[in-house]
Design a protein that fits this description.
The chain is an all-alpha fold. The protein has a domain of about 90 residues. The chain contains 16 helices and no strands. The chain is globular and about 70 Å long.
């Protein structure tokens, strides 16, 4: 935030051309034009080569998450390759263990879903008309500008339901990321094994001592702040997952490991993940619990846990490190979801935070970094 002091009427005002510029903006149109072309080319390459770029970016973020554990293992004088293998095995074992634990309950719920849809439709009958109206509106928007069907044309079969369409769009790109999991693990292993070799090479090629110091400061701040952010939200997400697992067990929905894992994973996606979680827990309660107000309890508890964690505890823990503009966070979420699907939404906030750290430390980009601040 800028702090401005009152101007003394007798004080001579400095002309705008002579005012000191703390955050200079580029004035050369060529620089702006070339910078815009570079950003567009970078984004286009990230979109076209997503099969390689996405696992690499995910591996870099995971390296920052595991960096504190890697430093601790180095202090224990473990060889770097052994420390990297231990961390990879711990990560892989956690993912495989969770997948094994939730595969059975997830299959059971998938089998129960077709039988529960009529009951769900009956309990949500009061929402049928608004949903049908919204679906007709979407169909009209899709057909806008197209030639209308002739009177003798056969009537097409009804399209997919609104919920099916939304879920299909929501999980676009998830399968591609799952297929690139091996690539992510491979990148992560070599990043952990290489340590700070890329930082050392970058420092060596910098021409001036001030540039070398700036590179080291930026690297240290990214490692410190992003690692703290990732570790903090992982711990808080685990707390939300445990709380939801207990809540689903106490309310009689069952399968606490499944629902705790769902809450844990969805909490990595700000705002949109919470909205999807509310929908999922609402449907689970309606399919399982007979009494209506008790059926709404799992979704209500999830919302309460999110308000305590997402609006109170996590901001309090991270307030000194991150002050990102919430509007730009939403824009970043939607943009990276369009680019890379669900993994892009998970990576959007760390990438935005890294961008702000770099802009704050590089003087020509300081104005853009200030624009990203809340």
């Amino acid at each position: 935030m800028l702090h401005m002091s009152p101007i003394d009427p007798e004080t001579e005002v400095v002309p705008p051309a002579e005012e000191p510029e703390d955050m200079p903006l580029p004035s050369d149109p060529k620089v702006i034009f070339l910078g815009g072309l570079f950003i567009l080319a970078l984004l286009a390459a990230a979109y076209v080569a997503s099969d390689i770029v996405l696992p690499l970016v995910f591996a870099i973020v995971l390296k920052l998450l595991l960096q504190p554990a890697s430093r601790m293992l180095e202090r224990l004088h473990l060889p770097r390759i052994l420390a990297a293998l231990l961390l990879i095995l711990a990560l892989f074992g956690t993912i495989v263990g969770l997948g094994t634990a939730i595969s059975g309950p997830a299959g059971t719920w998938a089998a129960k879903l077709p039988e529960g849809i009529p009951r769900l439709q009956e309990r949500l009958s009061f929402m049928r008309e608004p949903i049908d109206t919204l679906q007709r509106f979407f169909h009209q928007v899709d057909d806008f500008g197209q030639t209308g069907p002739s009177p003798n044309a056969p009537v097409s079969a009804p399209g997919p339901t609104l919920l099916t369409t939304l879920l299909t769009r929501l999980f676009t790109g998830t399968r591609n990321f799952a297929s690139g999991f091996f690539t992510t693990v491979l990148f992560l292993f070599f990043l952990l094994m290489s340590g700070d070799i890329f930082l050392h090479r970058l420092v060596e090629i910098m021409p001036r001592f001030s540039s070398k110091r700036q590179v080291v400061e930026i690297s240290q701040q990214i490692e410190s702040d992003i690692s703290a952010y990732l570790v903090t939200i992982t711990i808080m997400n685990a707390a939300v997952g445990i709380a939801m697992a207990l809540a689903m067990w106490l309310t009689g929905v069952g399968d606490p490991v499944l629902w705790g894992t769902v809450a844990f994973l969805l909490n990595y996606v700000p705002i949109l993940g919470t909205a999807l979680g509310l929908l999922i827990f609402l449907l689970a309660g309606l399919l399982t619990i007979d009494t209506l107000w008790l059926a709404l309890l799992p979704a209500g508890l999830y919302l309460g846990f999110h308000l305590i964690e997402g609006e109170t505890l996590t901001p309090m823990l991270l307030a000194r490190r991150f002050t990102l503009n919430p509007v730009l966070v939403i824009i970043s979420l939607l943009f990276w979801f369009w680019m890379w699907g669900i993994p892009g939404m998970i990576l959007s906030v760390p990438m935005l935070a890294i961008t702000k750290i770099i802009c704050d430390r590089v003087r020509p980009l300081a104005a853009f970094g200030h624009f990203l601040e809340a």
